[in-house]
Specification:
The chain is α/β, with parallel strands linked by helices. The chain has seven helices and three strands. The protein has helices at 21-34, 50-54, 60-76, 89-92, 95-103, 105-122, 132-141, and strands at 4-11, 40-46, 126-129. It has a three-stranded parallel β-sheet with strand order 2-1-3, sandwiched between helices. Helix 1 links the parallel strand 1 (4-11) and strand 2. Helix 6 packs across helix 7 (132-141). The longest helix has 18 residues, at 105-122. It is elongated, with a radius of gyration of 17 Å. It starts with a strand and ends with a helix.
Length: 142
């Protein structure tokens, strides 16, 4: 039987993924889950958008506006929000991502364009996104 190929584009979620360790973990997990016997060869391409976040400057005003929106959602929405502690660079790549997504139109535009460019370039069969990556890809595709 001939080996088939499945092209998957992966879009990570919140967090600092600049070390790229997630890429191989996802590729291995996908290969194991989809075709442990190797009948289907997974070709995995990452859409790491941390470089966009790295260049995104978040103002105190954007932070305050995002916090107000998110608090309003917490007060009037679901009640299962869990807080996580973070500091320094980690804060920029966790809570900062949320602020950028909620308030920074440039960040939204750049990540949307980045995903669309990756899709045109890689031409995946499947796009697999996690957490903030799902919002970015939904924004791009809609």
């Amino acid at each position: 039987m001939a080996t088939r190929t499945l092209r998957i584009l992966g879009v990570h979620g919140l967090g600092d993924h600049r070390d790229g360790k997630w890429i191989e973990r996802w590729r291995i997990a996908l290969q194991s889950a989809i075709s442990p016997g190797g009948e289907v060869q997974i070709v995995f391409e990452d859409a790491s958008y941390d470089h966009i976040m790295e260049a995104t400057k978040i103002s105190p005003w954007e932070t305050a506006a995002a916090v107000a929106k998110l608090l309003g959602s917490a007060i009037f929405g679901r009640r299962d929000i869990r807080a996580r502690g973070a500091g320094g660079d980690k804060m920029h790549f966790t809570a900062g991502y949320v602020v950028a997504w909620v308030e920074d139109k440039r960040f939204q535009r750049q990540t949307r364009q980045f995903v669309l460019d990756k899709v045109r370039e890689f031409q995946p069969d499947v796009v697999l996104a996690h957490s903030l990556g799902t919002l970015i890809t939904y924004n791009a595709f809609s």
